Each structure stands twice: as structure tokens, then as C-alpha cells.
Amino acid sequence: SMPSEVLLKIFSYLDAVSLLSVGCVNKRFYELANDNGIWLKLYSSSLHPKWTFWKMKSKQTETVSLGCAAVHDKKPGYWKKEYIFKQTSAFKTRVMRLVKFLDPYTGLPCKNKEAMKVSGLCWIIVLKDKNGKESVVEKSNLSFKDTSVTILWYGTDWPCLDMLTTLKLFGVTPLLPDQSRPPNKNGPRRFSLIAEYHLANLTESSVTVGADELVQLFSLSPGLLVGIWKEKNEVAFLMANLHYNQLLERSILGSATVQYVPPPNKPLLDDIDSEYGLHNYSLHLDLHGRNCMYLCGSFKCLFCRKRDIENGYLRLRVVNLKDNRKHLPIIGTLGICWETDVFKGSVKDCFVMDLTLLDETGKPFWCFSAPVRMELSTESSGLYDYMGHIYTADYSDSEGRVCLEFVWLEETKEYIIVSLVLYVSTKKVNSWYGTNY
Q1: Where do the coiled-coil regions begin and end (predicted)?
Q2: Do residues 328 and 244 both lie within one domain?
Q3: pLDDT, tens digit, 9 for 90 and up, residues 271-291
């Protein structure tokens, strides 16, 4: 029953975040909280002092100085949209500026943690069941590696697995971040869709990664690991592996319904020998189990010739079976660690692979972070230096395949990587360089 004039006077003392929150109370409050006079005042006060000198020459600030005309000639909510657009644009610019600093070792942004802290970024998942009901899961544990971040969610009140249809992964940032205080969980937030997964018939449509006494692991592309309780056939935990390449762009620059699409590559033309398919490529490879690192290696000067192109793939041989000087020992026992509120464990004979393939200019060409399982080969090692069981681990997506071979040494209780081959899709190469292999 309070007059609108009194409410507008009260609202005029609120900051932008409080105004947006008040607008969610009811229809009347929403209309009053959209008042152009209040938002014009906020917009004008947010202008940087250095704009004062050329204020009269700027069409935008000239409109601001028109007073009543700027208020009454605009539709309700106009200056609210202008204020939010200005603030979010400045925020994105500030965050993306940090991403420009590249690590010469990996070719990836080296200030990811700083950028995430500045942005107030977090990740949530939204589970949708067959009735259309959505469940939001926010509480997560983060584990940072050199080239990726692993996010773990778990809970006891998740929907039944048989009822789930889709899962959406979002990056979430404050709509109007305030550098002077931590982000408010209940304040207005912006969602950026990273990936969407279909969970119907999960155990049939996904890749089985492994199991222990309590859980069974299933993998969904890109980089999602689903842990299922064996006894109840319910979701125990969810683990997302996000590669640093374009991580912040996908987590910030997308919308709630549309994923961020990176701009196309601009190829650098050179006069390299036409017999080369790819040349002077670099590979950074990490194998880890969420909390422990098993392998961290870099390989330079990788190339393939055109005769290595067949069946729609270009082959890059990184570790040769016959060259034992490049064989790589694995530190520790391979497995993926998991935990919930009550239980924890480790599923053996699997790991998370972080692959970063850089082109001849040092630009990320093919990157992913994904769980991979190992399988015992029927063949035994014919190498003189290694007498033991052979294990294989393969990964594939739309951009290529990775084939690994391990030998288990019983005497020293360790794995040795004796072969590592990358198969890059010719479609990926053609779209990257604008060529036709």
C-alpha cells in the first residue's frame, strides 16, 4: 500500500545488486526497480573520471547529460540494460586480459587461477529428470593441474539414475562482480553453458572406465566421469575434467542456452617442404588420478610426412616401441581417486589424460582432458629390455585418436610407456589450415 513515489525514493539509495534483487519480489517491485531515473544515476556515477574531458564529444555521455530527456524518452529498463552491459563488458575485458599471458612450457594461459579468482567463477551442474524437474548441484571440490582443473560433485539427495535424462554443466559468475568483497551466492549471477550430456541409458551409451568394490565409473564426452553405486544403481559422484584451453572463454563468454564458439584459426602460410604433412609440432602430456600425478612430459619437433596419412588420419609417432631411450616410466600405481561425504576409494587401471598438442606457431591445436581406461593385451612383450604384460589405453574424439602401450615390470612394480602414437583427423587439419589432405 506504500505510494510508488516513496518506494522509488527508497530504491534510489540501493546499489545495483540490491535493485536487481528487489526486482524479483513481485511485479510491482520489478517495474519500480526498472526506473530509468535510478539506473541513469548509477550509470553516470560508474563513468571513469578520465571521460570527463571529452564528455561533451561522446554521443553516449552526451545522452546521459540530457537529464529528463534521457529518462523519459527511453523505455523502462533501458538504463538498467546499459549499466549491466557496461559492467559485464568491463569485467570480461579485465578477465580476458589475464588470459593473454601464456606459459611457454605448455602454450596455455598461465594465470588461470588469478583470472578465476578475479571473476568469482564457479561451476555447477543441473540435473533434469523425465518429469522436467531440475536439480541444481553447486557444492564442488576443485583440483588444479598444470593444464586442467578437475571438479568433483557428490551428494545424497540426487534424483534416481533411472529418472535422469540430461545433465548440463555451467560456468557461473556474478552478474555485477565487486572486487572489494567476495561474490554473493544469492546475488544475481550469469550462466555460461559449457556442455550438455544425455544420461538416458547411461550404462549402455557411455564408455565403462573401471570399478572397485563400491562404485563403477562411466565416461561421457567431453571429459565427464559418472560414478554409480553398485548396490543401489544410483549416482554417487560426478567428476568433470576441464582443459585450460579456452576454459575461461567457455565458462564466461557463453550464454545460459548457447555454448561459446571459438573464432576460426587464421593459418600461417610457410614454404615448408610439401612432403611434410605436419611439422615442428609440440606435445605436452599429463597423466593423473585427480590428486596424484603419474606422468608429466613434453615432446618437441613432432612431424609426419604425407605417406603417414591414411584412413582419414595423420600419424604422429611420439614414443617409438623400438627406441628405448624415449620410453617413459610411470610414477605410482595408476588409478582414479574418488570421494563422497562418507566413502572414498580408488579405481585401478585407469587415469585422466590431459593432452595439449601445439602447432608450429605454438598455438593450441588439439586439447582435451578425459578419463581413460587400460586394458590387458593378449600379447606379451617381445622386447629384450622388458619382459612383462602389455597394457593398452586408447582415447578418441572427433578430432583424433591417442594410442598408448604400457609394459608392466613385475620386478620393479612399475609401468613403462613403450609406445605413444597420435592420429589427427584430416578434417581437423583441413579446417585449421584451409587445406585439403
Answers
A1: none
A2: no
A3: 455 555 678 899 999 999 988
